[in-house]
Design a protein that fits this description.
With 343 residues, this protein is of the alpha/beta class. It has 13 helices and twelve strands. The longest helix is centred in the middle third of the chain and has 17 residues, at 211-227. The protein is elongated and about 85 Å long. Residues 1-12 have low confidence and may be disordered.
Length: 343
């Protein structure tokens, strides 16, 4: 048996806080105090340690390339400074934009974010919650899939701080939430078509129990009825292909509809592509209204009217709500306002 003793191949142990203390000639407690201290606007440490001593500690940290063991420190503090965000599909532009704003807000507060996708599956959501609970995350922001009330309730009862985002669930009013005023968004859509002189609106939507979509349709129907506008709603299987959209749009227009409303971004973009394939001019042949911000809506000429919801507000506010929960502060649910764009 041969053993290579060449120092070049010797495995170096990770520097510890004790190594830093020894190099700086101070106690472990003092090192910890310096590393956890905040600085004022002049860069001075907000802790009872002399500036030159604090600098010795920082010099030792740099020379040893010391990296704090966040997991061990988190366990000692009872906080990991790590949160989880579970959305239906992180590749969806709406949720991806939210993730970007949320991660930026978290970084400024020294938090790490774990992003997960439930793929609209209750079973997968349950598995993710169990796994994240075992990882000792400080809290979770969940955009729940349909029929996941039991899972979200269980998550809260396990002692995990939870904020519900975008989609509301019945019977969970005790859990803070942040969502768009979707009833109002639907009503805004009906009024937009009314201003444009439309007489029959075809609403095309995915067949799902998600509260946000259901509320948008309900708000639209209520306002359309009040305004005396004829309308028909067609539900499609989630992620229907181009041919299904083509057949549906042709049928809706064939029934006399002079306008199309798509209350979700994914459907709105597919519908726009199909309208082009069918040779339809917007707004020449058909009035159109989509949902959420999308580059396609802005480059289309003329620009496509759509209802916008602020992903920046969703990201920053949901993070702030969760941190307030973690810190033991009182938190109230938030309702965000929709904005009509390019109308």
């Amino acid at each position: 048996m041969c053993c290579n003793t060449n120092p070049k191949y010797k495995t170096m142990n990770r520097p510890t806080i004790k190594d830093v203390a020894n190099k700086a000639g101070v106690s472990v407690g003092l090192v910890s105090m310096v590393l956890n201290a905040k600085r004022d606007e002049n860069g001075k440490f907000n802790c009872p340690v002399k500036e030159e001593t604090a600098q010795k500690v920082l010099d030792a940290v740099r020379e040893l390339d010391y990296k704090a063991n966040r997991q061990a420190a988190g366990l000692r503090r009872g906080k990991m400074k790590t949160i989880a965000v579970i959305v239906p599909d992180i590749s969806n532009k709406f949720f991806a934009d939210i993730a970007g704003h949320l991660e930026e807000a978290a970084f400024k507060e020294g938090y790490t974010v774990i992003f997960c996708s439930s793929s609209e599956s209750v079973e997968r959501l349950s598995s993710l919650v169990d796994s994240l609970y075992s990882s000792n995350v400080d809290g979770m922001i969940i955009a729940p899939c349909a029929n996941s009330e039991r899972i979200v309730k269980k998550t809260s009862e396990m002692g995990i701080k939870v904020v519900i985002m975008d989609r509301l669930l019945p019977g969970l009013d005790h859990i803070p939430s942040i969502a768009l005023d979707n009833i109002r968004a639907g009503a805004m859509a009906a009024r937009s078509f009314s201003r444009r002189g439309c007489t029959k609106i075809g609403v095309i939507c995915y067949d799902t129990m998600i509260s946000s979509l259901r509320d948008r349709i309900e708000g639209f129907k209520q306002e359309a009825d009040r305004l005396g506008i004829e309308h028909c709603v067609t539900f499609l299987p989630y992620n229907s292909g181009t041919e299904v959209f083509k057949t549906t749009i042709s049928t809706v227009l064939g029934s006399g509809a002079d306008a199309l409303f798509f209350p979700s971004n994914n459907a709105a973009v597919k519908g726009l592509a199909v309208a082009n394939t069918l040779g339809l001019s917007i707004p020449g042949d058909i009035a159109y209204l989509g949902f959420d911000d999308c580059d396609v809506f802005e480059v289309y000429s003329p620009r496509i009217p759509h209802i916008s919801q602020s992903t920046k507000e969703f990201g920053e506010e949901s993070f702030r709500m969760l941190i307030d929960l973690i810190e033991g502060r009182e938190v109230s649910s938030k309702v965000l306002e929709p904005v009509l764009v390019n109308d």
